[in-house]
Specification:
Layout: H1 3-37, H2 39-48, H3 50-66, H4 72-81, H5 84-109, H6 111-121, H7 123-131, H8 133-143, H9 148-157, H10 162-172, H11 174-185, H12 204-229
Helix pairs in contact: 2-3, 3-5, 4-5, 4-11, 5-9, 5-10, 5-11, 8-9, 8-10, 8-12
Length: 231
């Protein structure tokens, strides 16, 4: 495939991803508003159909992740409606399965086009990524700032193996699921911003372990790069 056609396909894929993110975010926010507006009805339904709602919540969450929707608000909402441990299990399994779906379709549809660009323009970065792909994804998940599904697409097109992807994913999503589930679990109501206890995010017991993990991972990357430079 010649370069103009390749660039056009990459641009088209990028535009499609951006449009999907915008549309998915709009519908996700509408869904969140619907949940908040019907909070009392949903609370009653959850109490009467706990296991069914837990299963449906997993399916919905997987769909949201697959459509590149925002993740954190639903971790909080799940933390609100379910017990602390149940909410962690639901969010954890949903994000593992949802990320596998995203990894699979990005690996199938996007990798072929983006990998050619990466190998030509970012070969040095690609070699560094290959040597530290697990550490890279762990840092990406912990630091945040990039949508969850986009993080998955990035490591997929950079050629991260499925085995390494699963291993990094199993480790990296635990801290923030724990934190945001704690936020949801500490809320008295979904109605009213005053009830959203985000001050919990600033507590040392949550951020110190996360910071330590990030420091350990960065040190590991630095050590491996130094070791390789002496070979």
């Amino acid at each position: 495939m010649n370069r103009p056609k390749l660039n056009l396909k990459i641009l088209s894929i990028t535009i499609i991803i951006i449009l999907v993110i915008i549309v998915s975010s709009i519908y996700t926010l509408q869904l969140k508003d619907f949940i908040i507006a019907n909070n009392l009805i949903i609370e009653s339904f959850v109490k009467d159909n706990y296991l069914l709602v837990a299963f449906l919540s997993m399916i919905l969450f997987i769909m949201i992740i697959s459509c590149i929707g925002p993740v954190s608000p639903f971790v909080i909402i799940i933390g609100y409606y379910f017990s602390f441990l149940d909410a962690i299990v639901i969010s954890y399994l949903s994000q593992i399965l949802g990320s596998i779906v995203v990894y699979s379709y990005s690996n199938y549809y996007f990798k072929e086009y983006f990998s050619k660009l990466i190998n030509k323009q970012f070969s040095h970065l690609k070699s560094r990524f290959d040597n530290n792909s697990i550490s890279f994804l762990i840092i990406l998940r912990l630091v945040g700032g990039i949508p969850f599904s986009i993080q998955t697409i990035i490591v997929s097109v950079f050629g991260m193996s499925f085995k390494k992807f699963i291993l990094a994913n199993l480790i990296s999503i635990i801290p923030y699921i724990y934190i945001f589930t704690s936020v949801g679990n500490s809320m008295n109501s979904l109605i009213g911003n005053s009830d959203l206890n985000f001050n919990i995010l600033m507590e040392k017991k949550y951020w110190i372990p996360v910071c330590l993990i990030i420091i350990i991972v960065i040190f590991n990357v630095y050590y491996k790069n130094k070791k390789n430079s002496f070979k």
